[in-house]
Amino acid sequence: ALVGDKVTGLTNNAQNAIGKTSRDLSNRAKGLYAESRKVVAGSAEGSNDTVEKSIVVNVPLSTAYNQWTQFEEFPQFMEGIKEVRQLDDKRLHWRANIAGKDVEWEAEIGEQKPNKHISWRSTTGAHNAGAVGFMEEAAGQTRITLRLDYEPKGFFENVGSTLGFVDNRVEGDLQRFKTFIESRGSESGGWRGEIHNSQVQSGS
């Protein structure tokens, strides 16, 4: 009975640790998302929808993070994204086809910390903001949590169930990223600079 109690205790401790890790990462993403949403110019309170999804990828934390910083490779795993051009360390130009509609916008990274998080907001086009957080799940595993805030009328006029459409797309994008990075086994590159309050603090 004593051995059984010890095993049960260890199992419960492991489950609690995993639960805490997931909650911490979700809270971090929510905090960064909230910061991003505050600066989405012109968006009225309550006018936007929000989607949050999480996935565990079987690569080390630094590998997952480094690959995500390679924004111009997003079209390889993000559905509907035709092109992402990195204009400088903090600005991106996006071109996509969403529900049969061609859209373009520019986004600015507001916060970026290596192996921790990246948050952004749109500066032109339909209003959107978001954050992605990274946390070590176990040795050689990383949990990625992606949270998006978007204006339905700006992107999805032709979609009946907007929230379900975006929910499925975000989940699919994360699954494709998992396949992409796990099949490679290593990152194609990585930017390890930091951005705070939309100001580039360091870059490499």
TrEMBL record:
Under CDD domains, the record lists:
SRPBCC_8
Q: Which domain of life is it from?
A: Bacteria
Q: Where is the Coenzyme Q-binding protein COQ10 START domain?
A: 57-177
Q: Which Pfam families match?
A: Polyketide_cyc
Q: State the Gene3D superfamilies in the record.
A: 3.30.530.20
Q: What InterPro entries is this protein classified in?
A: COQ10_START (IPR005031), ORF3 (IPR047137), START-like_dom_sf (IPR023393)
Region of interest (Disordered), residue spans: 185-204
- Kindly provide the name given to this protein in its UniProt entry: Cyclase/dehydrase
Organism for this UniProt entry: uncultured Microcoleus sp
